[in-house]
From TrEMBL:
Protein's name according to its UniProt entry: Uronate isomerase
Family: Belongs to the metallo-dependent hydrolases superfamily. Uronate isomerase family.
Any matching Pfam family: UxaC
EC number: 5.3.1.12
Amino acid sequence: MTSINTKSRPDNRYFSPLPAQRELATELYHTIVDLPLICPHGHVDPQLFADPDYNFGSPTELLLIPDHYVFRMLYSQGISLESLGISRTDGGPTETDHRRIWQTFAEHFYLFQGTPTGTWLTDELDSVFGVHEKLSAKNAQDIYDHIDQKIQ
């Protein structure tokens, strides 16, 4: 398994390489880094925040099925929406095995390399769920189990 070295990722890794812009961005970042995140646009069901007994379901239900950035990328590369658990408008069959959907995602995770979605997912897996390995077909089920344990 490939380990992700999160210790070497500086806070300013997404800032401009231009010194003046980088300095200003760093200054601004340090003035707001500890403030709560308030965002009018989001992909998280507001019920998650309102209901203390909210059930996250499975890692697939939480991270994949509702994320149109994930399923659109995979669909653009020939992965059917049905195989990703996305409901059909005609009510036809879709994959319901969340482990199989997760496995498909992991087998194609390389497609997200160098994309904002890939950066977000990698950071989310690391900082939120403590997954310090690169997601792959080989470790997909172990990582699924790890996340599943965290959200129960």
